[in-house]
């Protein structure tokens, strides 16, 4: 087993789901987020500020703030400021619907490394089918507002049977608005996608179409990073088992997981020190239960839907 984690004294970044509450109800959402989906035990703003300082003191250089919709978290701005004041780079992962010009101003002042905006359609009809409650124009405006303020904007496009033919148009739109990167890949059989799989899932021919669009647009827009990630969920699990990510994945309630597709909690920021969290995370990847899970999912890929039901690994 290639275990490069052993050479690291701290994670390279901290992926933090600030809240499971969201202003949208996306039919493919891994986290099953929504307006009423906040966990009852999410970290308070005070707890988040304490954790921010611990992350900075532990030498972690980078934090990704997601949700749900991170802008809905009551302590978002203080936490964002805390990270930047302590020299930690920040990425924000948002649906963009709440980013007005004034919000873009506030974000720009704190100089994030990047902001990722999800755009899953080139028309309002397609976009709102994928993202109920969502307004495409607001998300596109967010890209423009952020780009105009010198922020590096990345766009995430989740391809499904509903929207994959619109990928080329999406790329054209977002590049025109200033996006510097567009990422897409295979949809995962997790969360809300499980209940809508019959209208979402793509076949090999569909993915070849997507790869062709990505190749053509990469040639057309040489200064924009346009990437299709070809690895499916099972392949991803097998790769990660051999070469685990050097990042911490933390849910809104402080529970630490290995991956969204693995149903085990390895640590809890309310109970464990940073040193303990990092050691338990590394130890978790070696645990026989994790290897067994990957083997079972390899035999029956749809079993990964059960990753939503969490249990403590230790």
Automatic annotation (TrEMBL):
Keyword Iron-sulfur (UniProt): yes
Pfam families: Radical_SAM
Annotated InterPro entries: Aldolase_TIM, PqqE-like, Radical_SAM_PqqE_MftC-like, rSAM, rSAM_sf
PROSITE patterns hit by this protein: RADICAL_SAM
Keywords annotated in UniProt: 4Fe-4S, Iron, Iron-sulfur, Metal-binding, S-adenosyl-L-methionine
Source organism superkingdom: Archaea
Molecular function in Gene Ontology: 4 iron, 4 sulfur cluster binding; catalytic activity; metal ion binding
CDD domains found in the cross-reference section: Radical_SAM (cd01335)
Limits of the Radical SAM core domain: 8-220
Cofactor(s) listed: [4Fe-4S] cluster
Entries under PANTHER family matching the protein: PQQA PEPTIDE CYCLASE (PTHR11228:SF7), RADICAL SAM DOMAIN PROTEIN (PTHR11228)
Protein name listed in UniProt: Radical SAM protein
